[in-house]
Fold each of these.
Amino acid sequence: MTQVMFDLDVLRTFSTGIALGSYARAADKLGRSTSAVSAQLKKLESQTGTALLRKSGRGLVLTDAGETLLAYAHRMLELNDEAGAALRGADLQGWVRLGLQEDFGETLLPAVLGRFARAHPKVRIEACVARSGELRERLDLGQLDLALAWDTGEQPLSPYAERLARLPLLWIGPAAPERVEAPWWTEREHHSPGTRPRKSKEPLPLIMLDAPCPLREIVVTALDRAGQPWRRAFGSASLAALWAATSAGLGLTVRTPFGLPPHVRTLDRALLSLPALPQISLVLYRAQAHPEAPASRLATLLREAVRQHVQPMAVPGRAG
């Protein structure tokens, strides 16, 4: 049986077209004609012996085989690019001080720092995990070169900040459905002697980070405007503690879909009569307009990792 040897250039075209949602856009980005891109896709399907794309309305969607190949294409291209970066940056030296919020510690940090360390073994990295306000303070004091943090739009972005994505704030509860109790969002009758029964909403048990927390202010304001009473069910300075409390069914919390652990899940706010919440920005902060080479390279890897992680979350209707 003849061994298939995939062309990385063709795989990059295939991957770029899916990422951009259009192979015409991919042709523009890659500097090729649409006919050349079409020929590359035909070559790829000929090599695999199966259809990779199918029509859906006016667009194209991946077949099951296409989904499988795309996953391998990402891995092959990442390894190729990592090898190229390692050869180009083998002599890169220095150090980078990176700050990020707890959301990204398990989802981004291992993969990004692993790739960076393999490609640039002579560069030393110092990483710290803190909340957004502290990270910005450390940047202002010159204690960090880069920081990845959420921004709620309360203050103008610093001149060296780059918005990488906007994600919805979602209501989050335990993964086990039986731990979400109806009294949180239903009305309950109250009986007093000699008076007619009256209905009132039960206070929503809220699980949030301790103040100061911009998300806390957003959530409380939305609940107050909706006339939904609430109570503080659990508070902590640790995001991991919030996930544990939410998983145990002590109440509901609010976060973006980025980095949710498996023991919690997003909830249908309309079904639970909870108020809609806004989107917030994921921002990469730089201490300088033009960082030194090590920080610049790490910033590039962070952008790529965020893009890959966020892309599957861009699902219509998830904003609640």
Amino acid sequence: MIHAEKATYPIVLLCRVLKVARSSYYAWCEGEAARRARRAADDALAHETTVVHIASRHTYGVPRIHAGLRRLGRRVNRKRVARVMRERDIRGVTRRGRRSLTRPDAKAKPAPDLIGRDFHAERPGTKLVGDITYLPTPEGWPYLACWLDLATREVVGHAMADHHRAELVVDALDMAHGRGGLEPGCVIHSDRGSEYTSTQFRHRTGKLGLRQSCGRTGSCFDNAAAESFWALLKEEIGTRTWPDRATARAEVFSFTETFYNRRRLRKHKTFGYLTPAETRQRHQHALAA
């Protein structure tokens, strides 16, 4: 106000009326160039942040936006990134609840729990977790089964069909075995759904030389890593209802293989922010060394 009215009234009078020290006013004037520079820098940072946010399919929040900028060589404070995102209303996605498909077979004898809620693996191909979910379409529900490697959180096997019989999880397991480099005796953990306690699935598991593990009935925490992936997929893929099954299949494949496995950053406790594919490469390089 003083700056706007200084042509009409003396600065001394304006400062006295508004109870502002003259030195404060002159210091404010001298800092105008610095403020313009900061605003320009914030605008440039906001542009870079928007580019990373769009590349993440509008899913990244502050931590991964900050990690993405650092990967591009941009050294910036995380709190500044948070402030710029808040001022520009750039937001990551939040997760929502989902309906469970687990239908236990009362007559089946489930495998023991070999994981014990320890969702950590020292190297790839030693522990997998799996589950089934559904995707709403007007043509009916296609069902998706996935297997995640706990060492990298990479989706190493997935299959989709218009049913959730045992063949679905067996197909996903065959894919994981073919591309995941599973070690003999690798633990494959799931819930106690009838698909995983079926004779067909157990036979296939034994033939591949894998060890089956099952969590307790009604406890989502026993398979929390797989449950977390479903929440992530359904929120970050950005679609609530697909127009048809073919579109759902194509978008899920694009999300898992193009974005999630190869581009989505995840914080590893040792390596920092890496994609699942990069985490696998780090493990492989360490073994080679």
Amino acid sequence: MNIRSLCAAAAASFLAFTPPGVLAQAYPTKTVTVIVPFAAGGGSDNIARAVVTKLGERSGKSFIIDNRGGAGTNIGNELASRAAPDGYTLLLGQITLSINPYIYPNLKYDPQKSFVPVAHIATAPTVLIVPANSPFKDVNAVIAAAKAKPGKLNYASGGSGTSVHLGGELFKLLTKTDMTHVPYKGSAPAMTDLIGGQVDMMFDTASSALPHVKGGKVRALAVTGDVRLKELPNVPTFAEQGLKDFDVPVWYGILAPANTPASAVQWLNTEINAVLKDPTVAERLVSIGAVPVGGTPAQMAEFMKAQSDRWAKVVKEANVKVD
């Protein structure tokens, strides 16, 4: 037998007795970047870091976060949509992917076509908060005041078209009230003016509102969802106060550019689901006002479609425009 024949025989033997997974380099083989379309230190960034940090620890692979805030998350979203579909650039998707197509006419990405869902990480309830010295003690008092003097009450948001803004518009539609929207350039200045009493209320995400509620700087009147928030056990839900249809789940999930290999998506989904079951991660998410979710990519895709349909209707009915 010549050298060529010996090599061929050896190769055949190796293929026959080597498990398939060993033949190909297992994903990931290099650093995975997760684009977070928000500035560092905010609620969304904290949720991303709680999961991504543990994902790296569990897998022994390198995962880093790249904060690309601005333009209503469109800067980060677009950047992720143009990344190579190889599994090494991911996006922290958020509720804005369900809203932006209906308020920004010239998006350079399509939330339904530019990405493939990987895993639904968490949802965060929306909390109605007022200044600590506000006369309002519950939701019905707010509704009564809004109906008594249409347009006089106002609510702050971090900008037109944000989930906080849309939450206020949905509240107005469901309660048949008229309140004035006061948009700010970011949630931080909106919260500052709320604490100072310059605005009447804010429909904020729990992850953003919790530190201020616990610190006594603002008062929480209600939370969305079927049950009370564990971190705010004394704050009733909107449903408990007669507004059962008001639900604004601010969702968070990991997405990848369209056409990312299914094997990479499945690996990530399996690992992220395992991370979400880790008690330390679950406790961390709950402590910052988020509820771990998990599930399959298909379930996340179905959820995103339902959310998109819902917010398209709200934007149309409320005639929401971006300032």
Amino acid sequence: MVLGGDHVLKEIDSQGDCWRRAPRLAHENAGVLPREGDRVAVVGCGTSWFMAQAYAVLREASGHGETDAFAASEYPEGRSYDRVLAITRSGTTTEVLHLLDRLRGVPTTAVTAVPGAEVADAADELVVLDFADETSVVQTRFATTALMVLRAHLGSPVDQALADLDRALAWTIGDDLLDRRPYTFLGTGWTTGLAQEAALKLREASLSWADAYPAMDYRHGPISLADGASLVWFLGGLRPDGLADEVAALGATVVADPLDPVADLVRVQRLAVAAGLAKGVDPDQPRNLTRSVILH
């Protein structure tokens, strides 16, 4: 029997305490976060990239300014931005550090959990979420807390998310959800990035076949995978109309509940850990992964 998951489970359960700090941190760091009207690029790797995608859509939709999101390794050289915002839990991610070094002269801010890491020298400004740092390789509370701080900076209240988080943490995970092929996550708008993160959690923590798509694009090929063994999870509401009925008619299990999308992501985190433990996988130490990707 493989024991594990203690760290990530505690970190998942602690997210409410972290999120409650978001409004104050957004206020305290207002001077180093993107200003309204700025043209902004947001970068990260893996989970941090998916949080960047979600924030970019939210920021544009709220009227704060043009915002692009890139994997740090794919940042388009030659574009002009008023500020580049980097998200990096460890502050040591190679692609992020290399990019920040190339961007000397462009205002940069890094959101990190480790203020003493190399990113402190690479970025002009830091937003420090050291209280949300994690022992587990699998990211949970740092990513969601970073996004909640950025949402709060855009003027979004945290009350509903916190109320829905209580529901997410109390959700009973049925045994029938622990081994699906595939797990598919669908999003629209800013929840498309969250769908990508949800799929990554299943892959990391349980070595499961999991994928993610914009909901409208799911019909364009991936729906061919849906059958009685699959689960299709809608993050952010049942959109487009009729798609959930189409999927259910194919025999797939559909999950779509009216929760704040970040709180709904917490349910996915819990499912990923439970699925990993059911397979004898240690979610705290995923296969072939380390806490920070450092390239030599």
